[in-house]
Design goal:
The complex is a heterodimer of chains A (788) and B (259). Chain A has 788 residues and is an alpha/beta fold. Helix content of chain A is 50%, strand content 9%. Chain A has 30 helices and 16 strands. In chain A, strands 3-4-5-14-13 form a five-stranded mixed sheet. Chain A has a three-stranded parallel sheet with strand order 8-11-12. By secondary structure, chain B is of the alpha/beta class. Chain B has one domain (3-47, 59-257): Aldolase class I (TIM Barrel, Alpha-Beta Barrel), CATH 3.20.20. Helix content of chain B is 36%, strand content 24%. In chain B, a hairpin with a 7-residue loop joins β1 (3-13) and β2. The two termini of chain B are 34 Å apart. The chains are: A alpha/beta (788), B alpha/beta (259).
Chain lengths: 788, 259
């Protein structure tokens, strides 16, 4: 239930156009141009820049708001970060004009860029540094689409806040800083001077946010004096009092806690543009003590708590992702900035942590139906089915939220990585599916890794057939492979070569960020940066992990399976013929292409002939990466997720032996190739569980269902059991795509790509593409009738 | 080695008994109902069926499988059965037409503690039913028409045997859910519903799965070259289903629609 205030704020947020704001970029540029920071240490400079932005940026307080603070001068006004990457005038124009996901900018913005920002930053951004230092073999692999690089346009982020701010104010953090500084040993610790600088920078950043909140307090007081509605005037005065109290002091009420988090959030995404944005993590756990205490005391009603949460949700939606540079008109990108709010799971003692607030948050997710923030439920074997079913009831409404995570797998993953059991249980998943020890870990996603491209390079002896350029080692002509093991050995050698290059690049990039782009504000928030006197980007966090995300597991498995089955085992065609067909993109060989797709044992059908190959690829990828050191005292790990990169990676890849046409998307996450799974959802889950999820930092599995399957309680019950069984097998994550009429229309036009779509017909379920046209129409009408 | 002729195996069957199930479709049926949903299951031997939408070309329906092969498929989803209280359902066609194979698979399931359901027309010799029944945990028992003349007309056989077998199952304490296909104008009349209620009350059977007729059989009939005797009979409207549901529920029957 939304009241009039929330309805208005929500509608405003939905209606607001995403724009670009030059304000932040101008403040940063002019401060640096002024020379006032000359001679300061880099860390101090960064703290002063942060302070300068927060002290001078336009404040935005909307009528009716309960939680205040915007990153830009208006909702969805998005700043740019020229320290990291510099938009060209052409970029601004394309962003303004493109039909999908536009960011509008005005003449003033373009003028500021032309006259001040571009002249100052050209050649000096982190992106420029990076591309100057990364060796040619890295750049060749990057251009070929072997891997991507997250830190090329965004600063290292990938962290989530723990419970610290709900227990301590920034004045307490300043005290911690002073204590660490007082204990520095300048005689025996050669890093003591660096630490002193880092701590001083954190101290400045803490002051900056306190001052930012107090600017809001003054503005709220002014607004209260002008307000004609006495009720709102009183509300504004209360809000002013809250902003005087937090973040300087620890919060004592539900409202204060939310406002405190929100100031912190704005601070993190103003300091730089970390990828993913930032995230309060286990919100139901953090807020419950306040909720419980106040509802018991009678100072907070459920309705008020709901309203405050709704207002909080709207703030996330007001903050689209910072847009990329070097964009092409075709690229659509997304406004989503990957804040993923966790509910459920277990507490530090391992007990069921689902509480009243967990359900209230799910209500808010269902009612608000906003693009941001995303929501997920953590499901442990200790959580009640009631909670899972509540989540599935929202999934059924078809907007893809919440996604469902296996707490028990996440805890095992984190403990295996060396985290304490309490830190693991207080953790969760962020971004898409990434496991992390919330509040204590810097876990950087460094880039996606194109596994099918490695196979293409293997089949072409290290030459990229798309360009004719040699980018990989010489691992032998494919025609000379005498069996599947020869092929796989060459694949492993190509893999090792490109993983080495990626890790070298990661080390270079980590070093650049540590040296030139410290983040004193983020360092305040993540343990143990203060205690270590070390910046987040320099290894100050308790745990430091670098991930390389494998993509196209389904495509590479099916392709290897096709080579094994069709070329080596049953000799349907020779290797030279296969290579020729791939090079020709199966031109005039449509029958062969279909046969390869249909007759090859494929991943997703609980068929060990394919799934054994899957395991082999997984183990090879794991061995190549897991445990290799990064520059921050931590190690590299793997996870398996694609976001939307499977489309880009597919565009850089020729035809594949599983019958996939050149340039078309790869399989996504650990999902089977689109349409390759023909044995229903239990077989998909069985296949997906054959990799050891516990040795990853997250895997992503998508499943499509039609609303009819979930129409009644029995359907929800069966789906819950499906989830529980997958989680018993250590599956990390699953999300259900409850498809709509539009998808069904696409399925009609392109049945081959939708062979796995299951629909409820009449008393039984069947594959949609197998139904008669009339029945398809009937089901589409039903779906459309149900609406969204 | 005992083999069976199987024409489909469906995983994640959630309308064929409790929990998440695997449904094994055995080929061959003594009836040929006008409204049959699975006409490709009628003939006992594998056969060719013309291509469906998307013109995939003719396909062969039905294959011989050993008990071991079928058990391997069933066992793949053990964890799903465990979690959901599910198991395996034998459907068809009419599974009782392959009694040796059916008994062998059922016995294996019993040994492994896998819950079994038999979706049957009940039209089988009494001795076969007596042999199979103790191996089955749950019967999904089709009841189409009580009037024998009508039954002969629309299914091709008398209902004597299936009624006798049903009485036998009830007498021996077997768990039975009645599956009632609701065919407009043929068995949805108040007269027939009254007879059916009376019959079931006499037997003390309360649970009914109402399966509203659907016209998806028509395309398969065409692909198999079978005559379509129902013409363009339309599926029952929602209000008809609701009326029948309410009628049966009023007399204390526990109903689910669509299995």
């Amino acid at each position: 239930m939304m009241n009039a205030r929330i309805r208005n704020l929500r509608q405003q947020s939905l209606d607001a156009r995403a724009t670009l704001s030059a304000e932040r970029a101008l403040l940063v540029t002019r401060l640096l141009q002024s020379g006032r920071l000359a001679g300061e240490a880099v860390a101090i400079q960064r703290a002063r820049v942060f302070q300068h932005i927060l002290a001078n940026q336009t404040l935005c307080i909307q009528p009716g708001e309960l939680i205040v603070g915007e990153r830009g001068p208006a909702p969805k006004a998005t700043p740019t970060y020229p320290e990291i990457c510099l938009h060209s005038l052409e970029d601004l124009e394309i962003l303004n004009d493109r039909p999908k996901v536009p960011y509008a900018s005005d003449a003033g913005m373009r003028q500021a860029y032309e006259e001040d920002i571009i002249p100052f930053w050209k050649g000096r951004t982190i992106r420029d540094h990076l591309f100057r230092q990364l060796p040619e073999r890295w750049q060749a692999a990057y251009r070929a689409g072997v891997f991507t690089e997250f830190q090329e346009q965004r600063s290292p982020g990938h962290t989530v806040l723990g419970d610290k701010i709900y227990r301590r104010g920034f004045l307490d953090l300043k005290q911690d800083i002073a204590e660490t500084a007082a204990a520095l040993d300048f005689y025996n610790d050669p890093q003591a001077l660096d630490k002193q600088e880092a701590l001083q920078a954190m101290d400045i950043a803490a002051d900056a946010l306190i001052a930012f909140a107090r600017r809001h307090a003054r503005e709220l007081t002014r607004l209260a004096a002008e307000e004609t509605d006495p009720e709102r005037a009183e509300e504004l005065r209360r809000m002013a009092a809250i902003c005087r109290k937090v973040p300087a002091h620890k919060p004592d009420t539900f409202w204060e806690a939310l406002q405190y988090y929100w100031f912190v959030h704005v601070g993190v995404i103003t300091e730089l543009n970390p990828w993913d944005a930032f995230n309060p993590g286990r919100l139901d756990q953090h807020l419950y003590p306040f909720y419980r205490h106040e509802t018991d005391a009678g100072t907070l009603t459920e309705e008020r708590a709901r309203e405050l949460l709704q207002a909080f949700w709207i703030k996330f939606n007001n903050h689209p992702a910072p847009p990329k540079v070097g964009v092409t008109a075709k690229e659509s990108n997304t406004y989503v900035d990957f804040a993923l709010i966790n509910t459920g799971g277990v507490n530090a003692d391992g007990a069921d942590a689902v509480n009243d607030l967990s359900y209230l948050i799910l209500d808010v997710v269902e009612e608000m139906r906003l693009l941001q923030p995303s929501a997920m439920v953590q499901i442990s074997k200790k959580n009640p089915d009631r909670f899972l079913k509540r989540a599935l009831h929202i999934v059924k409404t078809g907007f893809g939220q919440p996604s469902i995570f296996n707490t028990d797998a996440i805890v095992q993953e984190l403990v295996r990585q060396g985290k304490s059991i309490a830190d693991a249980r207080n953790g969760g998943a962020s971004g898409c599916v990434e496991s992390g020890a919330f509040g204590k870990e810097c876990y950087i996603l460094t880039g996606y890794f194109n596994l099918p491209k490695i196979l293409e390079l293997t089949l072409n002896d290290g030459v990229d057939p798309q360009t004719g350029e040699r980018i990989g080692p010489d691992t032998g002509k494919a025609a000379a492979f005498t069996g599947f093991d020869d092929l796989f050995e060459a694949f492993e050698r190509q893999l090792a070569y490109f993983v080495d290059i990626k890790i070298l690049g990661n080390n270079i990039i980590e070093r650049i960020n540590a040296k030139y782009m410290p983040v004193p504000f983020l360092s305040l928030l993540i343990d143990d940066c203060i205690a270590n006197g070390t910046d987040y980007n320099a290894g100050g966090a308790r745990y430091n992990t670098s991930y390389i995300q494998g993509v196209g597991l389904g495509t590479v498995t099916d392709s290897l399976s096709s080579l094994k089955y069709n070329v080596f085992d049953r000799k349907l065609l020779s290797m030279p013929e296969m290579l020729r067909r791939l090079a020709e993109d199966f031109r005039e060989a449509e029958a062969l292409r279909r046969r390869l797709g249909e007759e090859t044992p494929r991943y997703g059908n609980d068929d060990d002939r394919a799934d054994d190959i899957l395991r082999r690829v997984f183990e090879a990828y794991y061995r190549a990466i897991n445990g290799r050191p990064n520059t921050k005292g931590g190690v590299h790990r793997i996870n398996l997720l694609p976001t939307t990169v499977h489309v880009y990676f597919g565009s850089k890849l020729g035809a594949t032996p599983d019958g996939r046409r050149s340039g078309t998307p790869l399989s996504e996450g650990i999902s089977p190739v689109q349409g390759a799974d023909r044995q229903g959802p239990t077989a998909v889950l069985k296949s997906a569980a054959k990799i050891d999820h516990v040795r990853t930092g997250g895997t992503l599995l998508n499943q499509k269902f039609l609303p009819h399957i979930l129409a009644d309680d029995t359907g929800i019950e069966r789906l819950a059991q499906l989830v529980r069984t997958y989680f018993r097998m250590d599956g990390h994550h699953i999300q259900f795509n409850v498809v709509d009429a539009e998808t069904l229309r696409k399925a009609q036009k392109d049945p081959e790509a939708h062979r796995d779509l299951i629909v409820r017909v009449a008393g039984y379920s069947d594959y949609f593409v197998d139904l008669t046209p009339e029945l398809q129409e009937e089901i589409i009408r039903r779906t459309a009738h149900e609406g969204r | 080695m005992t083999q069976g002729t199987i024409f489909d195996i469906k995983k994640f069957a959630i309308h064929d008994g409790p929990g998440i199930r695997t449904t094994i479709f055995l080929k061959g049926c003594p009836m040929n109902c006008w409204w049959c949903h699975n006409p490709e299951g009628q003939r006992p031997e594998p056969e060719s069926m013309a291509g469906g939408p998307g013109d995939t070309g003719p396909i062969t329906v039905g294959a011989l499988m050993s008990v071991g092969q079928v058990m391997a498929e069933i066992e793949k989803d053990l964890l799903f059965y465990d979690e959901s209280g599910g198991g395996v359902t034998f459907s068809g066609g009419e599974p009782l037409l392959q009694p040796d194979f059916l008994a062998a698979v059922l016995a294996q399931c019993r040994r492994q503690g896998i819950h079994t359901a038999l979706d049957t027309t009940g039209h089988a010799p009494a001795d076969i039913m007596a042999r199979i029944a103790p191996l089955v945990d749950l019967f999904l028992y089709d009841l189409k028409l009580l009037d024998d003349a009508h039954h002969r007309k629309y299914t091709g056989v008398s209902n004597d045997r299936l009624l006798a077998n049903l009485r036998h199952l009830v007498r021996t304490g077997r768990e039975v859910i009645i599956r009632f296909p609701l065919i407009p104008h043929i068995n949805d009349t108040s007269d027939h519903l009254g007879k059916m209620k009376h019959f079931l009350q006499e037997l003390g059977l309360r649970r009914i799965d109402l399966l509203p007729y659907h016209d998806i059989h028509r395309q398969k009939f065409h692909r198999l070259g079978h005559p379509d005797r129902l013409g363009d009979l339309a599926p029952p409207e929602a209000d008809v289903i609701d009326r029948v549901k309410a009628d049966l529920a009023r007399d204390g029957f526990a109903l689910t629609v669509g299995g």
